Task: structure prediction
Amino acid sequence: FEGTLRGLVKEYQPKGPLENHLISQIAMCILRQHRAWQAEAIAGDRHTAQDTLTQHYPEKLSGSGLESLVETLACGGTDRRAPTHPDVLMAERRCLAAMADSLDVAWHGAPQGKAAFSKWCRRALDDDDADSLDNYGWAIQAIARDASECCKDYPNPARPQAHEYGHLLMKIAGLAHIADEAPGYEAEYWANTAQYHRERSQAIALDITARVEAINQALAAIEHLKSLTKQSHAISDELELIGRYEARNARMLKAAIEQLQQLQVVRQQQADGFTLNGNKAPQLKVVANG
Result:
């Protein structure tokens, strides 16, 4: 405001209290104009943010008729939260972190896993190496047990169906099926199988890391969009109100500029010797005898 006021004073060079008042009024109208533009932009952001939240991050499952019934049954009949609901995303992240820890402990963090994998890498497993077979079975059972526990806490809307083979839960569940099979007599087959499951577990761990990062990005985006919505509500609820405010301010600005210009024209005319009606004032001649 002060900068705008100084610029107007420099341009118009007001004289007297009335012209200075009009200069201040013009400066305030200009400042209000910028406020109205900012409010319009933020209100527009609010509508955009709300649309983005609704389309990309819905919090409730939608649908009607048969579609709604299928969704309700798939969610256990009670949980209507969408997979993009923040609570669902955070619960999914917790479960995935627990599964990642389970994979790490089974293959890295436990003596059984370290010893077994060392032998598997050298394909040194043979029929008499009961310890390695036990360790392998222990690792698989540990993954299966922890995955089963995590599934209990996995949010219903994010829980996969049996046909979703690419889902992380299905991938981890697939690691456990070999544990129910009795070891055969082909040592190389079992060594290859163990190595395959170890590498598959590593790939799943990378998938878990990627999914957790995607969840973090989604939660950050949701928080940002919600903050935009709240911020814009605090400034204005409707673009129509801003438009009326802007129009009224524009009329005030125009009136103040016209009044200032009229005053300055009159002042200049008086300085040049004109009367208020625009006619040249008669020059009085002073004679020698007075």
Observations:
- The chain is about 75% helix and 0% strand.
- Residues 120-128 have pLDDT under 50 and may be disordered.
- The longest helix spans residues 187-235.
